[in-house]
């Protein structure tokens, strides 16, 4: 019985096949991201949904559909199986009483990036990689630094100087080699690319979608949602989209489950939420284009979705088209308002990216794209606690003998 049924890597654009037993970055034929493919017949005959129910509540319960080949290679801090929390009050207010939040703020490092890091680092170490480098908007760097430390790898992390400060501290605490750049993640990406080229063979480029396994970790969000709903898909899944790996991963999960016969019926309509200050996917979607173009002077308080030109843009747009989904841009002011509304009505202090997804739910209900009786899952991709500056908290400091009104 195999722990993993990984069979090969396949280019997401040209379909070229690459062997999975050694490290890969982009497709050697066309320079596009590679996707992991599994022997789904073997998965189907070795495990059933009922078997899965008896396994520990973390993402490794899906190990047949993950790329790590031996149980001993798993590097874990207990990530996965986050709750699907009913959002009844906020849902009532916006007219979607069946609203659910998948709360990724509860995974190690406080963002869903831990899923990609757990699987990506485990597989990198299994393939003999000793040093990683990556650009990040903060959360991914923190997660890879932490999991890298646990695996005994060294990590070089490059992030914009205005990325959430706590993520820098996490990198330093975990012993990563941290660099700040006075620019965007795209500038950090160029620096990493140069380092990797100069150190040929000694440093592995672990940038988003430039290695094929981070997406496999993020895919588990989709596997969990379907399992948690009793092997049914929701009507709509709303995802704050930066590099889009989570969305591509959820789409991949739904396809694999459908092919396995564990999920029937139409797929969930996927929604890519972006910020008005950085919306390359929304622009491409509205123009009916198959790829995005670089978004100049991007800015938003939702730092994790400030990605001016995602490498996997064509895969994001394909996922939206195949699921009858949509893309929507929301303003920073309105997402902060929704962040406060969700905290006040539900007691959930979500991250700004998650708040953007709530704003999207509200606006898509108002426009009629979401119907009242639909089951809608919003991804809160991280903990509000990682962004201590988001909500102003001025209060007068009282003298010790003051009394309260
Ligand atoms: C990285 C990140 C995102 C965007 O994720 P992608 O999969 O790159 O689209 C959203 N929210 C948070 C909190 C993030 O850290
Ligand atoms: Zn290719």
Could you please describe the fold and organization of this structure?
- This protein has 405 residues and is of the alpha/beta class.
- It has 2 domains: 6-75 and 112-205, Rossmann fold (3-Layer(aba) Sandwich), CATH 3.40.50; 84-106 and 219-387, Rossmann fold.
- 36% of the residues lie in helices and 15% in strands.
- The protein has helices at 40-46, 49-52, 88-94, 113-126, 139-151, 165-173, 185-198, 214-228, 245-260, 280-286, 313-322, 332-346, 352-366, and strands at residues 6-11, 17-18, 34-38, 84-86, 99-103, 131-135, 154-160, 177-181, 204-205, 236-240, 269-275, 326-330, 376-380.
- A 6-stranded mixed β-sheet has the order 4-5-13-10-11-12, with helices on both faces.
- Helix 5 (139-151) packs parallel to helix 6 (165-173).
- The radius of gyration is 20 Å and the shape is globular.
- The termini are far apart.
- Bound molecules: pyridoxal-5'-phosphate (PLP) and zinc ion (ZN).
- Pyridoxal-5'-phosphate (PLP) binds next to helix 5 and helix 9.
Blueprint (SSEs and pairs):
Elements: E1 6-11, E2 17-18, E3 34-38, H1 40-46, H2 49-52, E4 84-86, H3 88-94, E5 99-103, H4 113-126, E6 131-135, H5 139-151, E7 154-160, H6 165-173, E8 177-181, H7 185-198, E9 204-205, H8 214-228, E10 236-240, H9 245-260, E11 269-275, H10 280-286, H11 313-322, E12 326-330, H12 332-346, H13 352-366, E13 376-380
Parallel strand pairs: 5-13, 6-7, 6-9, 7-8, 10-11, 10-13, 11-12
Antiparallel strand pairs: 1-2, 1-3, 4-5
GO molecular function, one term: threonine synthase activity
InterPro entries: Ser/Thr_Dehydratase, Ser/Thr_deHydtase_PyrdxlP-BS, TrpB-like_PALP, TrpB-like_PALP_sf
Protein name: Threonine synthase
